[in-house]
Amino acid sequence: MRNLPQVKMGIIAVSRDCFPMALSESRRKAVVAAYNGEIYECPTVVESEIHMQQALAEVKAAGCNSLVVYLGNFGPETAETLLAKYFDGPVMYVAAAEETGSNLIQGRGDAYCGMLNASYNLKLRNLKAYIPEYPVGTAQEVADMIAEFVPIARAIIGLNNLKVISFGPRPQDFLACNAPIKQLYNLGIEIEENSELDLFEAFNKHANDPRIPDVVKDMEAELGEGNLKPEILPKLAQYELTLLDWIEAHKGSREYVAIAGKCWPAFQTQFGFVPCYVNSRLTAMGIPVSCEVDIYGAVSEFIGTVISEDAVTLLDINNSVPADMYEEEIKGKFEYTLKDTFMGFHCGNTPSKKLSFCAMKYQMIMARALPEEVTQGTLEGDIAPGNITFFRLQSTSDAKLRAYIAEGEVLPVATRSFGAIGVFAIPEMGRFYRHVLIEKNYPHHGAVAFGNFGKTLYEVFKYIGVEVDEIGYNQPKGVRYPTENPFHN
């Protein structure tokens, strides 16, 4: 996949001047030896601000874009937290556990205590850093913490270098995905908003592009027997090249891009197709494309992509599962109630590799009001069963960041419907739907990552500044939501 950051991790050990520096140094070496991955071991152990400057110069020269500050002993409060202030990238703080009861005099580091002061000093300086759930460990445990930090760091690096390119205003009567973009600027994300007319002009300039036949061949190979609309592929290939060329010409100083695209109501009649399949192909490349100019949806997709290093999709939290279908296909086979289930749907933007089967078709909903021939271009199929994480980053109307995360699965149940669609099951979904999605005014679009990534997403959302009480999740049975009626029938 393209469009993904590469993490170059560095580790700096710190030492308080009244503790043996050799203790931090030897413990750092043990962590590096235990770590199963590439990491730059900074030779300078930080005892003072001068050491801090020297160590930062060393990790910068090594090309590090993320950093582990390792308290091998108690650690110097000022110097160790200034590392986070002056390092340009995500930072994690971890501490060494004591190794043996037979060496608790000269071999005792007190990093358990030092971590408290480090966290206090980070707060005093209003500095962001990742601190694991239990940040004190042996060399192997700290190495495992670093491995968990990598996808978090990748997401932060990506967001700090992201541009969202949008096309067109949101469709009429489609206020749900409209949210203030101020918070995205606060996160360091750039936004480029364009007219549909700009995109249409660029598309027309790509007519007869000599690269079109090769893209068509690639589409044919991907679709296989599902290539039911071969006549539309040249136009779709022309559109794909238009978007890819636009990205290269417009990403400017940014390294990574996501797109918030327009798809109705005038897109079909003017372009002569719907963009769903092309959106799915770019998403599979690592360039998320949201529908209906959903800017926060595009950012959510990007976060899921860089965390999972895999394609994501954006779906409507769409319709309930009919009771008869639940009785026939789900009850007694899976441990979910009817209210735990729902159907996630979008017209055809889910990458083919995430579908059990796929076919190129027309957009049935749009074709109810338009000629069928201008609605071709959707990729239909049931979403492949397996674990998923449904999530979204969103701004409120008064520009406050909030997010939700819910882990669940796509069930191996035929949907009997159209579009890119799946039967989803999330424990206690009914209560989550009412007391998070509805109560917190989330729009109907949710990003879907294929796998369980809730733990990492939660830490990313915290790191970028979402208050913990604004991160919603599906409460287990018996744990009441603040807005939930305590009086049950």
From TrEMBL:
A Pfam family reported for this protein in Swiss-Prot or TrEMBL? Fucose_iso_C
The protein's UniProt keywords, in alphabetical order, are: Carbohydrate metabolism, Isomerase
Q: Where does the record locate the signal sequence feature?
A: none
The keyword Isomerase is annotated on this UniProt entry? yes
Q: Which SUPFAM superfamilies match?
A: FucI/AraA N-terminal and middle domains
Domain of life of the source: Bacteria
> Sorted alphabetically, which InterPro entries does this protein's record hold?
Fuc_isomerase_C, Fucose_isomerase_N/cen_sf
Q: Which GO terms describe its biological process?
A: fucose metabolic process
Domain called L-fucose isomerase C-terminal: residue spans? 345-470
The UniProt record lists the keyword Secreted: no
Gene Ontology cellular component annotations, sorted alphabetically = cytoplasm
Q: Which PANTHER family match?
A: FUCOSE ISOMERASE (PTHR36120), L-FUCOSE ISOMERASE C-TERMINAL DOMAIN-CONTAINING PROTEIN (PTHR36120:SF1)
What is the name listed in the Swiss-Prot or TrEMBL entry for this protein?
L-fucose/L-arabinose isomerase family protein
State the organism named in the record: Candidatus Cellulosilyticum pullistercoris
